[in-house]
Amino acid sequence: MKKNALAAQSGGPSPVINSSLQGVIEACMQYPDSIGEIYAAWHGIEGVLHEELIDMGQQEQKEIKLLKYTPAAGAIGTCRYKLKEGQEDDFARIIDVLRAHDIGYFFYIGGNDSMDTASRVSKLAHEQGYDLIVIGVPKTIDNDVGDEEFTIIDHTPGFGSAARYWAMNIQNIEEENRGMHVSECVSVHQAMGRQSGFITAASRLADPDRKMPLQMYFAETKKTIEDLADNVNEQLKKDGRCIVVVNEGFDAGELGARRDGFGHIEYGASESTAVQQVTNYLNRHGLKARGQASCQQVGVMQRDASIYASKVDIEEAYQVGQKAVEIAINDGTGYMATILRKPGDTYEPYFDKVSLEKVANSVRFLPKSWIAPNGIDVTDEFINYAMPLIGDGWPDIVMENGLQRFARLDIKFISKKMQDYIPCRMR
Fold first, then answer.
1. Is residue 106 a contact partner of residue 95, using CB atoms and an 8 Å limit?
2. What DSSP string describes 309-320?
3. How far apart are CA 206 and CA 394, in angstroms?
4. CA dist 375 to 144, 194, 205, 216, 235, Å?
5. In the chain, what is the greatest distance between 2 CA atoms, to the nearest angstrom?
6. DSSP label at residue 250
7. Separation in Å, CA 25 to CA 166, 217, 230, 336, 410
8. How far apart are the C-alpha atoms of 422 and 427, rounded to whole Å?
9. Hey, how many other C-beta atoms are within 10 angstroms of the C-beta on 206?
10. Among 167, 192, 245, 246, which one is least packed by beta carbons within 10 Å?
């Protein structure tokens, strides 16, 4: 019997999150005998709780097509609303809303926390005898979903674009530092990734031959700020300049941390940042070259800059969204669509599935074997892994009047069938 489909996004956005959304929407349209209306929740699971659903079938097709090249989550919104034990009212509300709108397919685009939510919703629907198919669609620039053996997922959509952002920006930073080092001998930068160093490591993709005076500090290595200062001064004695990239989770002292709705440290909202702490320490500690240390924190730009998006990443994000629908139709509930890599020297991805239980709340760190013995560089194995993901060429961003043209959906909610509701964590 035909059922309606609902897609939602969760957690931090990425440059390609909407490509997955487009993949889900267009794949759903290919199964008219199984899938009726196609909805999207406004601001993720919060949109489900508030019963704020958008009819994607009423959107102009040209706007749907633009999703592929629209970054971040402005199209349908995202959220960091954590569903956990003790919020039974919220879980009951989700099922009630889905029932009310005859939702038989629920596609949740997100990271490890989101896969936990999807798993919980799938189990609850089964316990209540509600015929609901829940499928996860992976997303996170951090690349921290899965296992360090890469059997769950090879890489997450979003990482390739974040890696490309850093590769290209480090190229430009190198030119800046080369020209300005007599005044600013140390250029310090902060990369996203919480406790996982994949994005920091991507800086090396700008210089696989290791000609730049580049040092990277991963949360995984547990280097101290004192270690960093010593390493930088050794580089200054050799080259007279140094480029430093620190993982936002690098232990640089007390940051006055603030946390997001998932309980993770919100580094951009905290009272201080690792990059500022490092820069202050270097300037106080003393530098073995003329000039001073200066810093930049690019923040969310590394996850919302569409012009840096990897064409490989865009296409894979779209295909994994399509794969999610195929899994829903052919295999049933409780899976996440996944990207894996065929063995061999030539990069060749393929798409498969993994159980939500296996991936829920998983955390992957940069493998120790990919970190160089000195702890401040990566091995060639990482370069070989990551380089194919950044792709060649520029994304096909539509331009109008000299500006980027992004998807602009008509955000009108379908008629509500339930009473208003206040989610547990908003009471």
1. no
2. --HHHHHHHHHH
3. 16
4. 19, 18, 17, 8, 14
5. 74
6. S
7. 30, 40, 53, 16, 15
8. 6
9. 18
10. 167
CA angle 165–270–173, rounded 5-degree value: 30
Catalytic (active-site) positions: 142
Angle at 380 between CA 378 and CA 384, to 5 degrees: 115
Six-digit token string for 161: 């674009």
Measured distance between the N- and C-terminal CA atoms of the chain, rounded to whole angstroms: 38
Q: Do the beta carbons of residue 103 and residue 4 sit within 8 Å?
A: yes
- Residues, the chain, total? 427
Specify whether the CB–CB gap between 134 and 334 falls below 8 A.
yes
pLDDT digits (tens, 9 = 90+) for 92-115: 999 999 999 999 999 999 998 899
For 197-255, what is each residue's pLDDT tens digit? 999 999 999 999 999 999 999 999 999 999 999 999 999 999 999 999 999 888 876 64
Phi-psi region of 413 (alpha: psi -120 to 50; beta: other; left: phi over 0): beta
> pTM of the predicted model, to two decimals?
0.94
Reduced to 3 DSSP states, what percent helix, strand and coil does the chain have, rounded to the nearest 5?
40, 20, 40
Residue in the block written with tokens 């005998």: 33
The two three-digit tokens of residue 313, written as one number: 């990443």
